[in-house]
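Dear colleague,

As promised, here are the two records you asked about, laid out in our usual form so they can be pasted straight into your sheet.

NAME FIELD: protein one
SEQUENCE, THEN STRUCTURE:
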Amino acid sequence: MISGLIVLNKPSGISSGEFIRKLKPIIKDSKIGHSGTLDPLASGVILACLGQMTRFTNFLANEKKTYVAEMMFGIKTDTGDLDGKIVEKLERVPRKKDFEKIAKSYIGLINQEAPKYSSLKYKGKPLYQYARKNKEVPKKIRLIEIFNLDLLSLNQNKFKLLVECGKGTYIRSLVDDLAKDLGCVAVLSSLQRINSANHKIEDAHEIESINSDNIKNKIIQMGDALSSIDKIQCAVEIIDRIKKGQKIHLKEAELKSKYLRLFDEKKNFIGILKNINGLVSPKRLISIEK
């Protein structure tokens, strides 16, 4: 079974799931999944997890992501992007200084309403199914985090933004909220993810370039794929106790992050530990491949 991560460059116009399934004929019996869905409109970094790497997709999804987003003023749609139905028009276009006045208020933890056309679920069904039938459901408000929000350029009725954010951030909702604060209407007209969990667009592969002969050369090993998480290396007797589910206090873990990558003395990746002020316990360990 092939296990590890492949950093891919998804084009716009295809869903994330449909895109990574193109690898299926190459990986054969290995499991495949991805960390962090990109809307069909969006392009850029998709993290394809193969084999045992699928056990760690949530840890990748929890890490920071960086986007270049194009915000087009003048129209508002029911989906928040160019694929939707126009529901409002307003020709006003803000100035750079208008954006700079409000941008700082978005940095940090903020509440964000998920788009009606999203895959978040209500009573077991994704929100977009209700939206397509014009059925009202309670608003989904979530706490998200924006680390950086910069205006890269402006051209006629478009702003190009750099957004560095945490898990669960909807750029369509961010664009809609920005437009409201600017006294305008806008849609997300293009979106590219340029970084996800420390994996950059410059390192992403075109899926057409991957075949059964070269796929192993393009795979990032599991421990390296999770490089955005702090690491710790332990002796075999400590690892044996962790594998039995025991909690152990490790002084060297006291100042490290909530989760840790665990390696043995030979630098083999063992899995992820939960860390509370140095008290570590197994969170997700790899299984022994037969």
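NAME FIELD: protein two
SEQUENCE, THEN STRUCTURE:
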Amino acid sequence: MVKRMFFAVMFVAMAMVVMAGVSGAADVKAAAGNEFLIADFNTGEKPNNIGGDFGAWSKDPTDFTQGCSESFDTVNRRGTTGFAMKLDYSVDSKNPAYNGFWMFLQNFDASSYDNLALWVKGDGKIGYTTVFKVELKNASKQVGRYYVTNITDAWQDIVIPLKDFKGITDFSNLSELVIVFEDRIASNKKGVIYIDDIRFTKNK
């Protein structure tokens, strides 16, 4: 009888640990500090630094004149180790075209932060667009939008104030970040963009 009670207690305890792990993965709380790293891609594999999946997407996967693919890149990485994320896109289609890159944010609470920051550069040999859209989505299905401009072929730390994302007011449960290449605004219809060190930051 005592053995049965012991194993029953152990089973309940283990179940509670598993549930706590699942809950933590789905609701990431920001730690103290001036910035919180979401993704540095340095492992060369999924998921991101907070357990979220990511990948490329396309408006019309059956239209082979448009699309986006993602890959880990060591040659054009920022710094001397690890990887950057390479986004090879095309919106050069006779049909309406847009595509890009998505990343789950695991209901991240960014309410104590001021900015979304990411390092960005274009590929000087292949070509690139100097403008693209960044979206932030929350669990309430609000979508905030911001257009990044003046991209060059040198690494730039793009710091976007959260208040400048039009369409979203609650940053306490962010579900997804999306980068969008659009045919109507892309300065180059085909090209490569590199991104690295996606994070939320506080103003100093």
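A couple of things worth noting about protein two: The first helix runs from residue 2 to 26. DSSP finds one helix and eleven strands in the chain.

Best,
R.
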